[in-house]
Design brief:
- The structure holds two protein chains of two kinds.
- In chain A, strands 2, 4, 5, 6, 9, 10 and 11 form a seven-stranded mixed sheet that branches. Chain A has a four-stranded antiparallel sheet with strand order 1-3-8-7, with no helix packed on it.
- Chain A is an all-beta fold.
- In chain A, a hairpin with a 3-residue loop joins strand 4 and strand 5.
- Chain A contains no helices and eleven strands.
- In chain B, a hairpin with a 4-residue loop joins strand 7 (about 60-65) and strand 8 (about 70-75).
- Chain B starts with a strand and ends with a strand.
- The relative contact order of chain B is 0.34.
- In chain B, strands 2, 4, 5, 9, 10 and 11 form a six-stranded mixed sheet that branches.
- Chain B is mainly beta.
- The chains are: A mainly beta, B mainly beta.
- Chains A and B meet through strand 5, strand 9 and strand 10 of A and strand 4, strand 5 and strand 10 of B.
Chain lengths: ~110, ~110
C-alpha cells in the first residue's frame, strides 16, 4: 500500500457527462500529480499541485481541471466526456523537496460509453 | 520538452535468463531517472532510480546504468523469475525527483517458464 488513496476505483459514464476523481496523498506529502494512462499513450502527465497551488501543467485538455484543497486532497474534474477519455487515471504524491520519489495510488478506471 | 523513448515494447525471456530494457532521453538537463514496475491492473511502483552523478546502481537482481554522454539509461534484471513479468516504465526528470517526470511508453516483460 503506497498510502495514496484514489476514489472511485471504477467509473462508467456516458459521453457528454462530467465526473470528479478524488485523491488523498500520503500523510505529509505536499505535491499531488495526475496522470492519464491509456493503451497507446503510456503514462501522460496532466497536472501537478503543490501545497494548494498549481505548479506544473502537462498535456491536460481544457475540458479537464483540477484543484488541491487545504487538507491537501485533490480532485480532477473531467467534463464533456468523450469516448477517447476512457483511461486509467492515476494520482501520485511526493514529499515536495527536490529529489523525492513519486508514490502512485491504485488509479481510477474511467469508461465512457 | 523532454522526450523519452523506450525499447523494446515487448520482451520475452526464459526464466533464469537476463533481461535488458533501454531508454533514451532528449534533454541533457535531465538528472533523475526512475524505473517503475506495473503489474496487471495495479499501480506503478518504483523499483530503482539513478541520479546523473552516478553511472550505475544495483539492488539485488536489478541494476540501472546511465550514459549521460549518449543520453541513455538501461534496466538490467538478472536471474529472471515469473514474478518479474510486468510492464516496466522508464522516466526522466530535470528537477531531480517526482516533479516533471516524462515517462517512456513501457516494456511488457514476459518471463517464459
Amino acid at each position: 500500500d503506497s498510502g495514496v488513496t484514489q476514489t472511485p476505483k471504477h467509473l462508467i459514464t456516458a459521453t457528454g457527462q462530467r465526473v470528479t476523481l478524488r485523491c488523498s496523498p500520503r500523510s505529509g506529502d505536499l505535491s499531488v500529480y495526475w496522470y492519464q494512462q491509456s493503451l497507446d499513450q503510456g503514462l501522460q502527465f496532466l497536472i501537478q499541485y503543490y501545497n494548494g497551488e498549481e505548479r506544473a501543467k502537462g498535456n491536460i485538455l481544457e475540458r479537464f481541471s483540477a484543484q488541491q484543497f487545504p487538507d491537501l486532497h485533490s480532485e480532477l474534474n473531467l467534463s464533456s466526456l468523450e469516448l477517447g477519455d476512457s483511461a486509467l487515471y492515476f494520482c501520485a504524491s511526493s514529499g515536495g523537496p527536490v529529489g523525492a520519489e513519486a508514490f502512485f495510488g491504485q488509479g481510477t478506471r474511467l469508461t465512457v460509453v | 520538452g523532454e522526450n523519452v523513448e523506450q525499447h523494446p515494447s515487448t520482451l520475452s525471456v526464459q526464466e533464469g535468463d537476463s533481461a535488458v530494457i533501454k531508454c533514451t532521453y532528449s534533454d541533457s538537463a535531465s538528472n533523475y531517472f526512475p524505473w517503475y514496475k506495473q503489474e496487471l491492473g495495479k499501480r506503478p511502483q518504483l523499483i530503482i532510480d539513478i541520479r546523473s552523478n552516478v553511472g550505475e546502481k544495483k539492488d539485488q537482481r536489478i541494476a540501472v546504468t546511465l550514459n549521460k554522454t549518449a543520453k541513455h539509461f538501461s534496466l538490467h534484471i538478472t536471474e529472471t523469475q515469473p514474478e518479474d513479468s510486468a510492464v516496466y516504465f522508464c522516466a526522466a526528470s530535470t528537477r531531480g525527483g517526482a516533479d516533471g517526470l516524462t515517462f517512456g511508453k513501457g516494456t511488457h516483460l514476459i518471463i517464459q517458464p
